[in-house]
Amino acid sequence: MREIVIGMGSCGLAAGGQKVYQRFEELLGSGDHGASLKKTGCIGMCHAEVLVEVREEGTESVFYGNVTPEKADAIFESHVKNGKIAAEFVFDAAASGAQQKRIVLRNSGVIDPDNLDEYLARQGYKALEKALTSMTREEVVATVADAGLRGRGGAGFPTGTKWKFAAGYRDEHKYIICNADEGDPGAFMDRSVLESDPHSVLEGMAIAAYAIGADAGYIYVRAEYPEAIKHLKHAIAEATARGFLGDDIFGKGFKFNIRLKEGAGAFVCGEETALIASIEGKRGMPRVRPPFPVESGLWGHPTCINNVETLANVAWIILNGAAAFKALGTEGSKGTKVFALAGKIKNGGLVEVPMGMTLNDVIYKIGGGTTLGGPFKAVQMGGPSGGCIPASLGETPVDYEQITATGAIMGSGGMVVMDETTCMVDVARFFLSFTQNESCGKCTFCRIGTKRMLEILQRICEGKGKEEDIGLLRELGEQIKSSSLCGLGQSAPNPVLTTLRYFMDEYTAHIHDKKCPAKSCLALVEFAIDAGKCIGCGLCLSSCAVGAITGEKKKPHAIDAGKCVRCGKCMTVCNVNAIEKR
Amino acid sequence: MIQESGQPAPAAFEKMLWQYRGEPGMIIPLLQAAQESYGYVPPAAIERIASVTGTPEAEICGVITFYKQFRLKPLGKHVIRLCKGTACHVVGAETVGQVIEDELKVVPDETTEDGIFTYMVVACLGCCSLAPAMMIDEQTYGRLTPQTIRKLLRQYRRDAQKM
Ligand SMILES: Cc1cc2nc3c(=O)[nH]c(=O)nc-3n(C[C@H](O)[C@H](O)[C@H](O)COP(=O)(O)O)c2cc1C
To answer: Closest Cα partner for A507 from A433, A432, A424?
Structure first.
């Protein structure tokens, strides 16, 4: 009996997973082929979506990458019907897989997220059963503390300590909130977990609730994640129907129910006090801590907030013990970390590595190096709160303290790889425009300071930078960091400060030489036509608003640099890539 | 689905209002229901929510303007969400946006004159490995080039005009 498994997480769907699924459905419907079809979540190798796995008992699974409905026909004919592997479409998953260690992603891409039985078959809800039937609340907290699990939402706060605080407050109601707001541009770890293995998060929440004595839970999920919301709703209903959530779980009199709250699009709502305000139906503005949410959170009751990935680790720790978790990682950072590898990387996707692996190993051994094959220039970690780590620090291990020492942060797991075509000044400007836009406006320095920093970066990118701009950026950056209430403002200057630290030469090139070394800032490059490639079609000529392009039909055209205003429009209309930046 | 304010409220929104029993924290779900029903939050919906929940209209407007999800104007027939996340940015989302703006003659958050497209820019769609990416309604398109975007937009427009 062969099983055809299709990756239908958001990436798979975006790449056309639905069409491939339908095609296989039609093919299977054409007769009895002794094979079955199933959907799964994110397999992790997003760069090769649509991914199709053919499983057969007693043999190794075969992965097919970049599958289209046409390739589906060929795979079906050869492999499913005749048992002959369609070698030309096989995707080698072993190379990157061998370096990884899957705890959080243990079921991702393996099970059908909408089928509770498949989760149960892989020890699902066994940890909750173990906790409820054979462990005291204190033992659960102690196990998580002993394992050394730290919050994966960015700050890395020890989870056991947080639970211990929350357990210590007495109140008639306590809440556990799963933070699934994942607002970091360039990060999709939490989304993939929710889409691929929602029950692992529900189980983690239930165990946390038992440990701290909470009776209700909320999942605060971004409205921009419709697929995740769909799977979560289904999973909550299924778990409730089967008694894994509800008023008397495992007959132990333990009551715990979960509700879903959809965010409404505000990055700052990922911050815990803002998130609570948002669930309460207010504008999501952070407030002063203390009191911390573990003391006074949702509607004034003790509330423990944990990130999706943090919670997805919990069941594994309870089942396998603290020692197994502690065995992985470094002195201060235990277990694994999931990263969303993206940017100029060959094999982008979702990876889970043991803590302590070096950045070079993640990028070259797992990610397969850069898209163009050259060395990487920098890797951005921690999104708008993080920074750019230069290639010279590539031997830095994945570890909270060591990443922080570079000026970046571990963050929630976005890892955007940049090569020599990425302008670091532009990257700093990009992140600052994001935080400036997302500032809730409460603190003056965050609201106005980021705006001023953005204006300075903008003028540097336009070639109008001044000598004193560097000093101004540094000064403003330090002031914003020290006079903002929440993490948004406290970390907003990081992308600028780290690029100033490691890529000063690029700032100097923009300000002094009026050049963008990466040829990315349009105002600082020169456009020219490659006469060898130009076919003289005239598209660029008619698109140029200032008449800077001349040439006869069917003959190579040319750009008058004196007239050109560097809008880049000609480049977007050319069908033969004849326009170059110099 | 889009209705002018003043017309009777669609069933889903009205039902949610009827089910409201004074639970706290319902302003955002009610606004989401209103937007789901009308395609935007019309003044009439704000008045209804205010009177049913006893929340001042000013406070409701404060919530609406804080969150990017809520719109006070109707949407076009198709909604384009261009991703400007980090991964998309480093592989040319800027150019993609330029092409859309030129092709449709709109800037972000505007609707085309013929009412077919509303163009929005979002922080991250979360399919970074398909960058640069955009969504048209619920469908995601990845690895965009100026050529594929123009083709797509023209296709959508032709189909919309046929109906
Ligand atoms: C501006 C800002 C945005 C944040 N966004 C998120 C987020 O999207 N997801 C998340 O889990 N934590 C986010 N956090 C961190 C949370 O405030 C909180 O520390 C975390 O959810 C705690 O869970 P953990 O201990 O399991 O990491 C954000 C913090 C700030 C300051």
So the answer is: A424
Does A288 map to a domain?
Answer: yes
Nearest to A412 by CA among A446, A388, A386: A386
Element (H, E) at A246: strand A246-249
For ligand 1, what atom is nearest to the CA of residue A308? 11
pLDDT in tens, chain B (163 residues): 344 444 556 788 999 999 999 888 999 999 999 998 888 999 999 999 999 999 999 999 999 999 988 999 998 999 999 998 888 888 889 899 999 999 999 999 999 999 999 999 988 887 777 889 999 987 888 889 999 999 999 999 999 988 7
**Residue A100 resides in a domain:** no
What pLDDT, on a 0 to 100 scale, did the predictor assign at position B163?
Answer: 74
Q: Give the number of other CB atoms < 10 A from CB of residue A428.
A: 29
Tell me the Cα Rg of chain A.
26
Interface contact A565, partner B, CB < 8 A: no
Residues A437 and A537 both lie in one domain? no
| A473 and A368 housed in the same domain | no
Task: Quote the minimal CA–CA distance from A176 to chain B in Å.
Answer: 16
Q: What values do phi and psi take at A479, rounded to 5?
A: -65, -40
The residues that bridge with A353 in the sheet, in sequence order, are A337
Q: What are phi and psi of A390, to 5 degrees?
A: -75, 160
Residue ending a domain, choose from A418, A448, A468: A418
Considering the domain architecture, whether residues A276 and A318 belong to the same structural domain is answered as yes
Peptide bond into A290 cis (omega under 30): yes
Question: Which of A513, A537, A568 is at the close of a domain?
Answer: A513
CA–CA gap between residue B50 and residue B56 (Å, rounded): 6
Interface contact flag, A281 B26, Cβ < 8 Å: yes
Q: Which of B129, B130, B136 to mutate to test the interface with A (most CBs of A within 10 A)?
A: B129
Residues of chain A with pLDDT under 70: 95
CB contact A266 to B (< 8 Å): yes
Kindly tell me the burial class for residue A515, based on how many C-beta atoms sit within 10 Å of its own C-beta (0-12, 13-18, 19 or more): middle
Q: What is the pLDDT of residues B32-49, one digit of tens each?
A: 999 988 889 999 999 999
Q: Is residue A298 part of a domain?
A: yes
Per-residue pLDDT, B6: 46
Atom of ligand 1 nearest to the CA of A159: 25
State the pLDDT at residue B8: 58
Number of domains present in the structure of chain A:
5
Q: Output the pTM of the full model.
A: 0.92
Give yes or no: residues A163 and A129 share one domain: yes
Ligand 1, from A307, A437, A440, A494: best to mutate by most atoms within 8 Å of Cβ?
A307
Domain span at A468 = 424-513
Q: What was the pLDDT predicted at B5?
A: 43
CA distance A282 to B65: 11
Q: Do A10 and B63 touch (CB under 8 A)?
A: no
Q: Is ipTM strictly over 0.95?
A: no
Residue A299 CB–ligand 1 contact under 6 Å: no
Q: How far is the CA of A187 from the centre of ligand 1 (A)?
A: 13
Instruction: Find, among A312, A305, A200, the residue nearest to A261 by Cα.
Output: A305
User: Could you tell me if A137 and A167 are in contact, meaning their C-beta atoms sit under 8 angstroms apart?
Assistant: yes
The CA–CA distances, whole Å, from A118 to A40, A196, B51 equal 11, 12, 47
- A306: CATH: 3.40.50.11540
pLDDT at A46: 84
Ligand 1 atom with minimal separation from the A274 CA: 17
What's the confidence (pLDDT) of residue B4? 44
